[in-house]
């Protein structure tokens, strides 16, 4: 991202999370209730562990906003960790309690987690130094920041939603969802499943995995609706919007694959079934009867919905453990269990929405520019007007 920049700081059981969000124009109205609702959506979902009963994420705006409006300066956010109270002496930035810290030391890395790779990189004896930052807790800061990007996009008529498309094997054969399907899902349902007919089966599978001390992954689809054509670039490899979106969504904890549109199905068939016919309707608008490309052609938005699916591996903290090695004895030992979730897929959808919002807001500001919302609106309208009269302009 070039115009919008986001830095987050904070550990899972430390005092809290910080975000610095740069690049938003001045004059954007900040709806704090909306930001709070986004944080609550991230906490929701069947299959979460006890931690979500401890936290009630509340954002404290520390800079960049005055009287409910952005100033154009960096936005500073602070979200305290309630659980920090249970980790005093272990996660303080200052002096630690040696006994408590030793008791909570992580010494047998969990396969799939950052523990081993991060330990080798930073040469930390206590793998807690790695896991605390690798934890999905950091995503709170991204969702709070993404909410600002969503507010900007909403002013220009762009909306973003997501839903759980499959959980483990359940729903994996269903086709890429449409905007209408994602919009129709019940945000308060246990798993925010796009196909509500599958929800009971999904809940039962989560219960079974919990019983067995195992975990689950799956797929979530994010759709952005109302995105204008022309965001991104076909001329520079590092500005291709599909590349930027996939990087951002891949960075969501535990995501191991990202798909644009119906790419997986398209890769298995002929071109004639992979691409979207081009039509002009009676009103002189460009129309695509299908959206297999997921709204992106050549790394540029084409005016159709932007569709991004994230495939999440099962959570790597298994109560039943996985083969690992004890760092003290260097002998085989099961990986250590840290309280965790059976699945966090509904939350992953909300986090992926935030990442898509940040990337789209960046691409939009790159295209239309402007230091104030007034300028952004004016430039945005001018761009749309030009596109309406093209190719005779
Ligand atoms: C996580 C483990 C669990 C999750 C956590 C991510 O936390 P704890 O170890 O405190 O039980 O609930 O997610 C969050 C805290 C969150 O806010 O999403 C992990 O190991 O990644």
Describe the structure.
With 393 residues, the chain is an alpha+beta fold. It has a single domain (5-389), classed as 4-Layer Sandwich (Chorismate synthase, AroC fold), CATH 3.60.150.10. The chain has twelve helices and 17 strands. The protein has helices at 32-43, 51-54, 98-103, 115-122, 128-134, 139-155, 179-184, 199-212, 241-250, 263-267, 345-368, 373-389, and strands spanning 5-9, 16-22, 26-29, 60-63, 65-66, 69-71, 75-80, 159-167, 218-225, 255-260, 279-280, 286-287, 296-297, 300-301, 306-312, 323-325, 332-334. A four-stranded antiparallel β-sheet has the order 1-2-7-4, covered by helices on one side. Strands 8-9-15-10 form a four-stranded antiparallel β-sheet. The protein has a three-stranded antiparallel β-sheet with strand order 3-6-5, with no helix packed on it. Strand 5 and strand 6 form a beta hairpin. Helix 6 (139-155) packs across helix 11. The two termini are 31 Å apart. The structure holds ligand EPS. The site of ligand EPS has 16 residues, from helix 6.
CATH C-level: Alpha Beta
Shape: globular
Please tell me how large the radius of gyration is: 22 Å
Taking the sheet with the most strands, its summary is:
4 strands, antiparallel
Keywords:
binds ligand EPS, 393 residues, 12 helices, alpha+beta, 4-stranded antiparallel sheet, globular
Short description, anyone?
The chain has 393 residues and is of the alpha+beta class. The chain is built from twelve helices and 17 strands. The chain has one domain (5-389): Chorismate synthase, AroC fold.
Outline the secondary-structure elements:
Elements: E1 5-9, E2 16-22, E3 26-29, H1 32-43, H2 51-54, E4 60-63, E5 65-66, E6 69-71, E7 75-80, H3 98-103, H4 115-122, H5 128-134, H6 139-155, E8 159-167, H7 179-184, H8 199-212, E9 218-225, H9 241-250, E10 255-260, H10 263-267, E11 279-280, E12 286-287, E13 296-297, E14 300-301, E15 306-312, E16 323-325, E17 332-334, H11 345-368, H12 373-389
Helix pairs in contact: 1-6, 1-11, 4-5, 6-11, 9-11
